[in-house]
Each structure stands twice: as structure tokens, then as C-alpha cells.
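A reminder before we start the practical. When you read a complex entry, don't treat the lines as separate problems. The point of joint prediction is that each chain is placed relative to the others, so the output describes one connected object in space. Small molecules and nucleic acid strands, if listed, are placed in the same frame. In the example below there are two entries. Take a minute to note the order of the lines before looking further.
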Amino acid sequence: MTDTAMSGPASFADAGRVRDPSAAPLTTADGLPLKAALRRSQRRLRLQAVLLVLPLLLFIFVTFAIPIAMMMSRSVQNPEVSEFPPETAAVIDDWDGEGLPGEEVFAAMARDLATGQENNTVGRVTARINREIPGARGFMLGTAREAATLQPPYKEAMLAANKGWGNERYWRLLKRETRSITPAYYLLALDYEYDSNGAIVKRPANYQVYQPLFLRTAWMSLVITGLTILLGYPVAYLLASLPLRTSNLLMILVLLPFWTSLLVRTSAWIVLLQQQGVINDLLVFSGLLGDGSRLRMIYNQTGTIVAMTHVLLPFMILPLYSVMKTISPSYMRAARSLGASNFRAFVTVYLPMTIPGIAAGTLLVFILAVGYYITPALVGGDSGIFISNLIAENMRGTGAQVRLAAALSTLLLVGVLLFYWLFNKIVGVDRLKFG
Amino acid sequence: MSLPAYAGPGERAWYYGFRFICALIFLFLIFPIVVIVPLSFNALPYFTFTEAMLSLDPAGYSLRWYNALLGSEPWMSSIRNSLFIATSSSIIATFLGTLAALGLSRPQMPARGLITAILISPMIVPLIITAAALFAFYARFQLGNSFFAIIMSHVVLGAPFVVITVTAALSNFDQSLIRASQSLGADGVTTFRKVIVPLLLPGIIAGGLFAFITSLDEVVVVSFLSGPAQTPMTVRMFSGLREEISPTILALATILVALSILLLTVMELIRRRGEKMRGMSPG
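Here is the predicted structure of the whole assembly.
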């Protein structure tokens, strides 16, 4: 604003008087109305600020936001089924879904099979349908081979060629899945499926994988968050109440783990917790345990919880500490002098003032915990893995189901973003600090 | 929090009890990191202390795992890959992040809250989701298994740290110093060079170091984006921890602990220098 010169002594004199509405508005040296000049310079400053932020914002948009949006959209796409039988898809919507469809649907399917056989596109769709209707692959491929020789009426001809075409479930599946968008992967990700009548039902208990895993991930993250509060609160309190020289020294013990590679910390816990590891050796050596009864502390839930509590503890201590440091000790002294016991003074005076710190630490630790992958993969065994580990499994490998992985990711992401929004609302991202 | 002279036995017990509990928690924090250091000098291929080590017999210790690490071309090339990726990505992240922080700290910045939240979000989104999304994204452009894809993704992951630290440095920034500089006759460039940059440098360096260590330590995204030619040390370490556990990993882990101690010291020195420059006594 330094470059917007005022229009000299006249306007200064003006400011003192009651302004005459008919008088000319205040202007700058070059004759612009002051208001417009100010608005223009403000606009320029705003543009400067935006231009400074723009490179990173664009970069994150293109190489982060768009890829994630693309992945999320993949979770509802259904090209395998919707692109294969174009003629059937065009007519099957008119069928009411009762009994078997009429001749025109069968005729369309015969033409689709013939084209599919020619272009080699049948294989992909049969694999997808076979997952829901075992055996569909067989009759589809079989009829496709002779599709060119089929004679009308197609309905009778195809039913004669293979009884599988008489399966009403097959036709209902086609009617449902020839739309280009499908909820099928979300149903699977929540352990639901379509039954033989096309109604949405829960999968049989022994096929339920994902819902229990989501619940377990949330539950274990809660336990870990609780443990970090339990361990972090006293340490943060001690650090905040000690003289700065001592607390800076002790802070190193918090910051060193924070700065140390996650893999290093996880391998340290493998060293400590495994059956031939340091802690078991120590217990056996001191006679507390027999050699045959070594504790199983790793490759299960215990391993994940212990290692992740260690890894995430600094994320609890640092926000707690920064809040506690601002609390004057005179509040506690005042409460004590008014007759409160130490405990009462703590509960009614100190604790409420630290709630912003607890909220910040809790949300941060929980958000980070639910998405953890490395530590559960290394020390979690089968019972201690998180939903991230199954997403990774579905992304790659032989039994990969990328669309299912995308659906699982989307569900996890929506949960995480919800908590992130909450964090931003309660704490504010601009309050995040390290060290 | 010192113990007053008039404290009763109960208060005394609570005071020492509390300190004891805190000592145990500090032990929990630091012990796992300390314990791997002696184990990396194990003469035998075990992940635990041998009797010879416990009796401090020199024969129980050796440098064989360090030799194995430094003499192994796969390990060394993966370390070189990691350093290359971390250096390039942290430089870009520092540049973009510092610019963004400068913009975000302007009072005229519109939609600041929302934009900050977006810029920080790569830190919050679970890494496996980022990895899966970027894997498909770069594969579409035939850029999977390339240094380019890895470095770009690490810029995204490192930039939030730079934004946070530089924004924090800017929020401590005393705007009157700029006016003071101008009133003493400095032009814009001189003010930027002699006043703004030296005061912000601690924050910028801290952010850059965070971005560097984030990239150096990152496993998940890089394991989706790297082929045999780009394999960084973390991916080798990760598969090593899952398959054949050898103390070579502990030797590398010890080196990484030494590196984090070094970086922590640098950060502390920078912080003190910054405080001195702003005329804040450490107290």
C-alpha cells in the first residue's frame, strides 16, 4: 500500500470535517478514487498471494488429487460386463426380470456372442460373471464357439445347446450388471452380496472378511490412541513443568524416536519381542519364564499394538506439550490455596485446560493409525493386520482385485477425511507443528 | 515442578512415583532404538545378545555385518538410489513448499483454511491409498518403475512438512523488521536478502530436512513405483525384514539412527541460532 500516495494536504483537511455528500470523493495523486485504488492494490496483493501458492497447489492437484479421484472412480466402474454385450444391454432393460427373458433378448445375446467370439472379448466377461455364477463361463464359451451357426428361434436353440441358459439368475445378473456403474465392489467390501433373487444380503459368516477387518482396524487404532494418551500425558506434563534446560534435554528422548526411520523402529521391536528375542531371553535368563514357555508377543495383535504405540507416541506428546506449556502454574496454586486437594485441582482446573491438546493428539494419532501399513505388515502376523494390508494384497499379486481394492480404499479414505475435517474444525491444520 | 520443603510423605511418594513412571515411559521410547546398536556388532547371525556379548568378550563383537553391508553391491546401489531420490525430491519440495507458505501467510490470501488443508492432506491420506492411486496413475503414462514417478510422489509427500515449518517460522516473523529495514533505506531486494531470508532460513532448512528424511524413510509408495533399477534401501530392508532376517539390516538401522541423531543436532543448532537472531533468549 506504500505505493498508493495520498492526495496531499487537501484530503487531510477533509478528514476532520463532516463530509459534504456533494463534495468530490477522496482521490489519489493520479486522480483515482481512493476506494478504487485501495481495492486495486488489495486485488494485486491477493493475486500475488495466490500466485505464490499456485505452483504447489497445482502440483498436488495433478499428481495427488486427480490420481486418487481416478482410483475412486474405478471402484464403481464395470467395463468387464457393461462393454461386452452391447445388443443385449440395449434390450434387456425392457425385460421385467420375471422368469426367462423373451426371444429378442436371446437373439441379441446370440449376436453378442458371435461378435465376442470374433473379437475375442468373451473371455474377460465370462471370468467376471463366473465369479458370481459358477459354471457360467462354461456355457457362455461353449455357445460362443457355435454362435455363428445358431438358427432362430434363438431361445430354443440356445436352451437346447446348454441348459445353463435357462438359469434365471444369470439373466437377472446381466440385467443388473450391464449398467456402466455398479455398486458390486462396495457390497463386497462391506461383506454383502446379491442372493439368487438379486436381493442384497449379508455374505455367509465364513466369507466375511472386510467388515470385521474395518472394525478391528478402528478398534485397535482406538486402543493405540488410548495407550498413547496414557503414556504421553504424564511425559508431556513432566516436560512442561520442568525448567527449560532440563526439559530440552529430555525432549531429545521424544524427538529421537520421532526422527528415526519407521522401519528402524519396527525392526527394533522385532528384535525385542520375538520368541528368541531380547525380552524373552531376559525373562528366561532371570528365571521368570521356563525356556519352553516363551511369550508370543509378536506376529499378533500385541506386536502391532506395542510397536504402533511406540511409533505414534511422539505425535501425542508434542501437541500435549505445546498446550501444557502455555498453562500458567499459578492456576494450580490458586486452586490449592482455595483448599482443593492435589487431585481435585488437577481434575477440575488443569485437565480441562489441556483438552485442546488431548483433542489434537487423539485425532492426529487416530488418523495416522487407521491407515498404517508397514508396522502391521511386519509385526502383525495374521491377527494384527489392518485394512491397509488387505488393500495392498488386492492391488497386486495373483488374486488381485483392483476394483475391490479401490472400493476398500475409498471407504477408508472417507473415514480418514471425516476425522481430518473434524481435526481441522476443532484444532486447525495450521496449528500442526513438529519439534 | 520441584518438591516443596513442606511436602508430606504422601506428596513425597507421589512426586517420586510420578518421576519413576515417567522414567519408565522414556525408557520405552528410547530403549528399542538403543538396543539395536550393540546388536549390529554381533559376531553371530542372531538378532539377540549372545553370551559372549553379555560378558563383554571382544570375540563376541565384530564388524562383519557392516562389511557385509558396505561390500554388497545391491545394498550400496539401493542406498545410492535412496539418497538420489531423497535429495532431488526434498529440493523441489522445499522450493514449492516455501513459496506456498509465503503465499499462505499473506493476510490477503483467500480461502486460506481450505487451501492449507489441501496442501497438508498428503500427510493425512493413508500411504497405501496414495501408493495405489499413484501406481495406477503413472502406469497409465508408462511412467511406472521410473525415478521420475518416485521423485514426483515424494515431492507430494514432503511438501506438507515444508509448508508447516515455514508457515510456523513466518508466524513468528516480526513484520516491523521489514519496516525497520525499509526506513533504514534498504530496497525490496536487499530487505528480502538481508532480513527475510536469514530469519526464515531456519524454518526452510528444517522443512527441507523433514522432506529429506520423509523421502529417505518412505517404503509404501516407492515399493509400488520402483522396479529393480530404482529399488531404494527401504524396500530392500522391508523385504529383508519379511524374509531372511539378517543382522545386516541392524547395521543399516544403526547407521540410520546415527543419521537421525545428526539431523536432530543440526535442527537444534538451527533453532538456537534462529532464536538468537530474533533476540529471544533461550528461556
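Discuss with your neighbour: DSSP finds twelve helices and no strands in chain B. What might explain this?
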